[in-house]
Each structure stands twice: as C-alpha cells, then as structure tokens.
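Page 37, continued from 36.
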C-alpha cells in the first residue's frame, strides 16, 4: 500500500479505490462497519430531504449545544475544507482524528482474502462515524448524503428521523417523480421511532412507508403547527408550545419550515434529550451556516447560496425579491451537468442583469460556456448579458470589477461555486475593490 501521511493523501487514496463515484447500496459498507465494531451509545437524529437538511442540522446543533449537550454533526459536502463535514461540539474535526479513523476503515476494508471495495463517500463516512462513536457524544446528528434508504449513514439506526422538503433532484438515481424520491428518503424511518415530516405536502409514499414500518409520524399541519407575524412566531404540537420566538438567524422564508421540524424533533425526543425554552431561543438566535442565503457585509452587497436545484433556486429567487431595490444584480453561477437547468435559470433570470457563468473543478460539472449557451437559449431579456469564466474566483472578480457599490452580487449553484469563492476570502476581494 502507498504511504499515506496527510489527510489529503488519504482523501486522494479514497477517490481511487472504487470504479464508480456513486454505488448505491448498504451491503459493502455494513460489512466493513461490522468488522470495525462500529456502534453509537448516544441518541441519533438522521435528516433526509431535498433541501433544508443542512439548515435543519445547524439548528439542531445550535439548540442542543445551548442546552449543554456534547454534539456531533456530520454533513456533506463541505464548502472549503473536508474537516467541515464533521463538527464536534461546534468545531470542525481535527485532521489527525480523521486520519486515524481512515486507517481503521482501511484495515477493516482490506481484510486479507476478503477485501471490500468502497466509494470515496462510503470510506469517508465510515471514518467520520468512527470518530463520532469514539468522541463521548451525547447526541449525534447525521445528514443523509443522497436519498436515504441506500445512503451510507443509514447503517446507523436513528432515534428520530427528520424528512425536510422533497423535490426533484438526482432523478437519475432516486427516481423521476416526488413519489419515487419520497420512497428513498423514507428509508431512514425506524419502527416505533418518531419521524418528523416538515414538507407541508409530502408524497404519499412517505406517509405509506411510515405506516408500513410502524414509525411515530409527526406531520406539519397535523401534529405540529406554526403561527406568527412580522415580529415573532410560535410553535405548538403534542403537549408543548413555544410563543414569542424570534425568527431564526438563518435568512430566508423557508427557514421557518425547517425550524418547525427541528422543534418537532426535539419535542419527540424530550424524554431522551430535555431542552428548555431558553436553549431554543438562544439556539435559533445564534445559529450560523455558511452558504445558505448568506449575506456578506460590505459594498457591493454579496449573497452566497448553495441553491442548486429548481426548488432551492425558487426559494433563493423569492428571498432575493424580498431584499428590496438594487440598480443592477450580478450573478456568479456554476452547476453540475446533470441538473435541470432550464427551470432554475427561468426562475431567477428576471432578477439577474449580468451573468458570470463558471467552470468548476470537477468532471461532473457543466462548463461555464455550456451554462451560458443554455441560458442564451431561454433568455428573453435583451438587456441581460452573460460571460463565462474558468473559475468561481475569476467570475466573482469580474463581477466585483463591473459592479457599483449600490449593486448586488449573487453567487449560487453548486457547493463548488460558493466554496470556490469562500476559499479565497470574499471580504478581502471587496476591500480591494473599494480601495481601487
């Protein structure tokens, strides 16, 4: 075996192990997990859905952290550094812990005479779960990477499942309609355990699966409800009520739906994980999550959002529309080649005056030029302009150079798009622009 000293060495090795980047199924990863003796001794919350998973995990983490619990949160993908995928007590995992865990996975995987091939995601997921299992946690929060039923995190039995909004994405793997996709998401349910469904109009397949496995179903609008005005909101459901809550610190109208699901999950788990009202208030007030309608202070106004499918782009468009007037809106956009681009571009195009399409550092991505051509086919605004660039940083720099201080720049699309901008330090770029 080659010499692996750094986390970068290990991640490069993981990328070369398996012939397919995505290989749905649990048998291989379950076998390696058994060899490792992987098990959790704390309550587990598993979160699936098309959009809102990361925000839901962040709110859970913030509230439970305010309540004094030792939290561990696994989310993917990362924006800048791989270590962001696991937060222990609110901080990114130290690389040496990941390196040691990857070595454990490799030892179990490469058992002499019975070697098992794992994908990059499976290998790194097992390592992260190993670190979590060894970190004396009081609660583990797991975000599903893709789907749910056959995702690697589903080898861990959940104490409470949360299913956020369900829409069309990854249709080549999960199915062509919401019913098929809902069935895959519903695979994280467990018999007798609560499942919170925060999608207001869930696919029937989700409800059917809950009944089939005997899960304790919590539905928004039936088992819990939200109410409120412009200043505050309230939540009520199954023996608990919160009133006079400040809106979540995460921006966007869709965050209230996510917050409602979080409070339902915490209420369902109140015997295992008691949380007082002050922890709820503080957690929602202080929660942070980069790249989710994140507004960077400075001029011009900068908005970062990892919206990368029609549903999340529609939410982004609504949030942008609510921001008020800007003379010109510039957009830096990069996306994977398998995305349903036409409805995404159509939804946000009326708000964008200048487009900066970008290549991304992965073979799965559409080129900036291909994105521009796709936009041109559907664009009906003669006054709008589009250009293509070799990287998110070059695209952002061009947007900053072209923008007036009163303008707005929106960076959205793939995690690679937003991460490529954050990696270079957005405030520094803005400061440079203002000095020129």
């Amino acid at each position: 075996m080659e010499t692996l000293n750094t986390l970068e060495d290990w991640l490069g090795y993981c990328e070369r192990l398996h012939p397919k980047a995505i290989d749905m199924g649990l048998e291989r990863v379950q076998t390696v997990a058994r060899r490792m003796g992987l098990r959790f001794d704390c309550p587990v919350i598993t979160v699936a859905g098309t959009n809102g998973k990361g925000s839901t995990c962040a709110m859970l983490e913030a509230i439970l952290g305010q309540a004094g619990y030792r939290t561990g949160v696994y989310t993917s993908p990362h924006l800048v550094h791989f270590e962001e995928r696991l937060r222990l007590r609110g901080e990114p995992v130290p690389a040496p812990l990941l390196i040691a865990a990857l070595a454990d996975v490799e030892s179990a995987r490469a058992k002499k005479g019975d070697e098992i091939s794992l994908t990059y995601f499976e290998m790194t997921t097992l390592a992260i779960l190993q670190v979590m299992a060894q970190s004396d946690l009081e609660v583990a929060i797991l975000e599903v990477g893709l789907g749910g039923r056959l995702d690697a995190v589903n080898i861990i039995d959940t104490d409470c499942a949360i299913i956020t909004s369900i829409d069309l994405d990854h249709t080549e793997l999960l199915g062509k309609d919401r019913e098929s996709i809902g069935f895959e998401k519903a695979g994280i349910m467990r018999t007798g355990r609560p499942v919170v469904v925060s999608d207001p109009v869930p696919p029937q397949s989700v409800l059917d699966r809950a009944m089939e496995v005997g899960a304790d179903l919590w539905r928004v609008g039936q088992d819990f409800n939200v109410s409120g005005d412009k200043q505050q909101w309230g939540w009520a459901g199954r023996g608990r009520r919160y009133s006079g809550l400040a809106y979540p610190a995460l921006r966007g109208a869709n965050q209230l739906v996510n917050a409602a699901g979080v409070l339902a999950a915490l209420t369902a788990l109140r015997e295992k994980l008691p949380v007082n009202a002050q922890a709820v208030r503080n957690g929602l007030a202080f929660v942070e999550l980069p790249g989710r309608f994140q507004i960077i202070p400075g001029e011009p106004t900068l908005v970062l959002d990892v919206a990368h499918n029609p549903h999340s782009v529609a939410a982004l468009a609504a949030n942008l529309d609510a921001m008020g007037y800007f003379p010109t809106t510039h957009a830096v956009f990069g996306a994977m080649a398998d995305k349903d681009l036409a409805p995404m571009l159509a939804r946000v195009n009326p708000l964008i005056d200048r487009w900066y399409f970008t290549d991304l550092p992965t073979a799965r991505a559409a080129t900036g030029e291909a994105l521009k051509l796709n936009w041109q086919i559907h664009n009906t605004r003669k006054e709008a302009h589009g250009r293509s660039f070799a990287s998110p940083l070059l695209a952002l720099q061009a947007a900053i150079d072209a923008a007036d201080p009163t303008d707005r720049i929106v960076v959205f699309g793939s995690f690679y798009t937003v991460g490529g901008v954050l990696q270079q330090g957005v405030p520094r770029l803005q400061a440079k622009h203002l000095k020129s």
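Residues 134 and 393 are 38 Å apart (CA to CA). Flag for discussion at group meeting. The chain has 16 helices and 17 strands.
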